[in-house]
Amino acid sequence: MTVLYEDNHLIVVDKKSGEIVQGDKTGDVPLSDKVKVWIKEKYHKPGNVFLGVVHRLDRPVQGVVVFARTSKALSRLNEMFRTAEVHKTYWAITQKRPEKEEATLTHWLVRNEKQNKAYAYDVEKPGAKQAVLRYKVIAASEHYNLLEVKLMTGRHHQIRCQLAKIGCPIKGDLKYGAKRSNADGSISLLARKIEFVHPVSKENIVVVAPLPDDNLWQSFANATKDTDACL
Q: Would you call 180 exposed, middle or buried from its count of C-beta atoms within 10 A (0-12, 13-18, 19+)?
């Protein structure tokens, strides 16, 4: 487990693809439990360790996850996520290049619980929630494109669903139309950066996740150096 930032109120870690953030019906050990063990061992804490889950990433997604270490931080972070005061930047690899180099996408998403999938529509539907994101193409290789995505709303599978809707499913994302899976079961979506005002100290916190350790992601490392400098 890689800790990207830590203080008395927060801990930010780099989630690996395949990990679940919080316990579910699979019974697999969640990242939250691993973080608790890490805190307990580092600080020799007796008894239970408090850790609050404030947001999640889909299981096949890698990148930045924030946990609260105090109840004060938890309640304030929950409100900050609710009011969109936490700014998240994602990187996504697609095979098809979008028609526009950058654009704002607005759709209406309907979630199908049985399929654990969202469907995007151009017009409002009963039970739908509006989903808005901005993307821009920031690098390209011979076969793939790297998109930077900023979320304006936080919906179930939003990036995966909206990019698929414009004909650009994320590499490895079979659920949303990719032609083949990634060898490690991941999808090529990275929660690259998170930025917010610290809920207690009021400092500006910016945390950036490293690129996944595979050849395709690493091939974009040099091409995105200028982008990294802006992060």
A: exposed
For residue 26, the model assigns a pLDDT of: 84
Measured distance CA(126)–CA(108) in Å, rounded: 10
How would you label 58-90 residue by residue, b for 16+ Cβ within 10 Å and e otherwise?
Answer: bbbbbbbbbbbbbeebbebbbebbeeeebebbb
Backbone angles phi, psi at 22, to 5 degrees: -130, 155
Whole-angstrom distance, CA of residue 225 vs CA of residue 231: 10
Cα–Cα dist 61/20, whole Å: 10
Block mean pLDDT (10 aa), the chain, length 231: 96 97 89 97 93 96 98 97 95 97 98 96 96 97 96 95 98 97 96 97 97 92 62 50
Structure tokens at 201: 């100290």
Q: Which of 55, 147, 161, 152 is nearest to 112 (CA)?
A: 161
In this structure, the strands spanning 189-197 and 62-68 are parallel
The answer to whether the CB of 110 falls within 8 A of the CB of 118 is yes
Q: How far lies 193's CA from each of 42, 61, 82, 167, 204, in Å? A: 26, 13, 18, 25, 13
pLDDT score for 187: 98
> 10 Å Cβ neighbour count for 190?
26
